[in-house]
Amino acid sequence: MKHQLDFEKPIAELQHKLEELKKHPETHSLGISFEEEVSTIEKKIEETKRQIFQNLSAWDRIKIARHPKRPFTLDYISLAFTDFSEIHGDRLFAEDRAVVGGFATLGQHKVMVLGTQKGRDTKENILRNFGSAHPEGYRKALRLMRMADKFGLPIITVIDTAGAYPGVGAEERHIAEAIAVNLREMMLFEVPIIAIVIGEGGSGGALGIGVADRVLILENAYYSVISPEGCAAILWKDRTAAPKAAEALKITARHLEELKLVDEIIPEPLGGAHTDPKTAAKNFKDGLLKHLESLKAMSPRERLKLRYEKFRTFGHFTERLSPETQPPTQGA
Questions:
Q1: What is the rounded CA–CA span in Å between residue 95 and residue 133?
Q2: Strand 222-224 relative to strand 264-266: parallel, antiparallel, unpaired?
Q3: Beta strand residue intervals within 7-92, DSSP E
Q4: What is the rounded (10 degree) CA torsion for 41, 43, 46, 51?
Q5: Over the chain (332 residues), what is each successive 10-residue block's mean pLDDT?
Q6: For the domain with range 62-312, which CATH number is right: 3.30.70.330, 3.90.226.10, 1.10.1060.10, 3.30.70.2330?
C-alpha cells in the first residue's frame, strides 16, 4: 500500500494476503473453497478497517488530513462543481497560486468558490507554495468575494492550509493586515458564505477565508490556532510531543463540533477521503447544498445578525471553583 500510515499496517497485511491468494489460487487452505477463503479475507479487511478507523487518535486523524493522496481544493471543485471559470491575480501585486478561485455552479446555484491549494509533488508544491498563501493570495480572495457580493453570488471557501506563509516577503507586504481586512470584510458581506475545512485548517491562514455563516469540516480534517508540532515545541520544548499536543488542543472534527466551533461534520468514506474521492466529493456537495439552501431562505439582514452572533459566542467558558475557594453559603 503506497503512502501507508502506521496504523494501516494490519489492513495492508490482509490486502497483501488477499492479492497473493488471487495470484496463486492453488495455495488456498484445504477443506475450504477458494471463493470462501477470498470472501473470509475480504470480510476480515472490512472489519479491521472499521475497528481501526472508529478508534483513531487525534494524531492519527492529523496524519490522514495530511495524506499526500487526499483530494485537494481543485479536486473537489472538479468533482462537485460545474462550469468553473478560474480568476487570477489580486490587481495589486501578483498572482498567488496557493489560492485558487472563480465562478462555478453548485447544483442549480451560481456561486463564487475559492480556497487554498496544495501540490501533489515537489514541483507543484513549489508552484503552490505548499498551500501557504502570501498577502496577494488573501487579497485575491477578497477581490473575488467582493465581486460575488456585488453580483449576489453565494461564497464557498475551501480551507486546506498549514497556515499563511511566514516569510520575509509576506511580512514586507503585510500578511497580517491582509488577513485582518478579510476577517472584517467577510463579516459584512450580505451574500451567504459557507466555509469547509477539507484537510488542514491552520491558524490565521485558514481564518483569512474562514468567516462564514456555516463552517463545515470533513470527518478527518482539523482546525487549529497552531500545529501540534508548534504547540509541542512551545509547551514541551520537544516537537516529538506532537501526539500529546494534538489531544490537548481538541482540534479534531468531533472536538470542534462539541465545542460548537463548527456547524457540521461531513462524513468521509471508511479509510479517509483519499480512498474514494468520488464518494467524498458527493458528501461534500450534499453538505454544501443543504446549508446553502437554508441560508438563501434567510434575508441578508438575518444572515448578518446570525453571523455576528455566531462568532461573538466563540471562546466562552465557565470556571468551577475548588471546595477551598467556594464562597460560604448563607447562614454558615
A1: 11
A2: unpaired
A3: 82-86
A4: -100
A5: 74 79 68 73 82 88 93 97 96 96 97 96 95 96 98 97 94 96 97 97 93 96 92 92 93 93 95 93 97 96 96 79 63 52
A6: 3.90.226.10
